[in-house]
Amino acid sequence: MTNTPSEYVTLVSNDGFDFVVRRESAYVAGTIKRMLDPASNFAEAVSGRCVFENINGVVLEKVCEYLYYNEKHRNAKDVPDMDIPPELCLELLMAADYLNGNDSCANGRRLAGGADDLAV
Predict the structure, then answer these.
(1) Which is the most buried residue in 31, 32, 96, 108, by most CB within 10 A?
(2) Cα 60 from chain centroid?
(3) Measured in whole angstroms, how far is the alpha carbon of residue 92 from the centre of its chain?
(4) Closest to 18 (Cα-Cα) out of 61, 66, 72, 79
(5) Strand 18-22's sheet: what is its strand order?
């Protein structure tokens, strides 16, 4: 019997909010992808649960929204900007920096970056 990972993972904010997202969507974030890699021997890879002590629920919710937004527009051109409240911009940029972890996703988009990237 093989031990295949679940299609879904749980991302947990520092204020206790749980967000269940598709594993493939979560892999856009390099840090999450490495945490969930079975070869990493991280507890998150076994449990399918990533706790972010430095990201609150409001910000993590917007990150999750972006993960799905990115998946929806993966191969699209002229992607409309995501609606980001100005008061969340700094925290989202810090979260994006942490979650990217110097890794980009397969289609070249990152959580934040160049002019043609979706800014979170």
Answers:
(1) 32
(2) 8
(3) 11
(4) 61
(5) 18-22, 8-12, 49-51
